[in-house]
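3.2 Worked example (two chains)
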Amino acid sequence: MKKLLFILLFFPIIGFGQSEIDSLPANSDSIIYKRLEEISVYPRVARKMTYKRYTRLIRKIKKVYPFAKAAAAEIEIYNKKFVNIEDEREKKKYVRKVEKALFEEYEGSLRKLSISEGRYLMLLIDRETGETSYELIKELRGSLPALFWQGIARIFGNDLKDDYDPAYKHFVIEQIVLMIERGEV
């Protein structure tokens, strides 16, 4: 008796939701299409990270991310010209010229960065270019300057050879960058 009562009450309710499907012609083949709003699902922030540390990290990433985007664009432009130069002397001249122009443009704002912001900048440059900072310096300036700057970075607790790992080691940074790109932060 309960099953019969359930069936009589349940089936009329189901029938109301299918009015669009019932109105379609019998010989047509169609699929109902509804565009859904994108929902971002992120892993939980590491248990050791407090809300205060997380918001500070967001502030730092927002501060250095434009520099990383600009660096990737500049590197792409300059690499196209750098590859075409065959003479070593001309390459060194070109690198000095580019370095001088970049120092004039970015030196003041980059000097104001803290050590941790510099670390995040190096990681984000690796994210944008696919090469670590050490590899970029070695490619443009040579092995000895790359080794020198690696030593300076190690003194301040950084590592120019540190790879960006968005899946495990740097997933929180990747999450923040994706939110910045979507305009959520």
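3.2.1 Second chain
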Amino acid sequence: MRVVRQTATRRGPRVGATAVLLAALLSRTAPGQELRDLCLDRPGLGTPACTVDRGHAIAELGLADWAQDRQSGNRSDTLLVADALVRYGVTDSLEAQLGWTAFGHVRERSDGITDRNDGTGDLLVALRQNLHNPDGSGFASGVMPYLTLPAGGTAIGAGDWGTGLIVPISTDLPAGMRFSFTGSIEAAVDDDRDGRHLAHAAVVGLDLPAGSATGVTFEIAARRDRDPSGSVTEWLGGVSGAWSPTDLLQFDAGANIGLNRDATDLQLYLGVARRL
């Protein structure tokens, strides 16, 4: 679950870094010891409890992520490109994460006036400690503290540092289904980009198998944000699908829909992930 608000000020994406990461995603991996089944953060609103194998890495790349929100006659469109997350297995049950968005564009329209802003994003640093079943099988649980650093600017970023804790839990169900719950609490950055406030969220998900290499996930998420400018509660519904042509590679796509007036109206995204 990407719970971070990204940031941006510089014009244009970092094409070189994005190309290198994309090439790594599609390249061959040298043979080695037998590894766990591929278990990814993408796609969806929740967070898995599994961790990456010790000494190995997984790269996850959001190729495109578009969101639209309408509030009181105003419209905001946000496009993220190359939203990258690299995960590395430190021990058999602990992984380190580094995330960054190469490019974001925001267009806001109000009373016939259009404002545009774009650039790069904030930096995410996180650790995930699995507490039970690091491969994600059976009943699995974990804890994930994270920190966001204001490495970007005003378009898609928070403007200050933030921190939080995510607690993912999942369990197998009959017929190959899987239930998941993700709870989180955070010191979220204020809307005025200075200081922090309390926010907390919960995501409930159901994974359904759709063949040997595909799967579909349905989710409902609620988030309570206690910003000093006014508290809001957001409700979202999400559906996502993933296809794994090999044991090392996955492609995904998904959509989230706002279920109340405080939530983002619509979000569409697609991405790719690969074990390196």
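3.3 Remarks
The longest helix spans residues 15-26.
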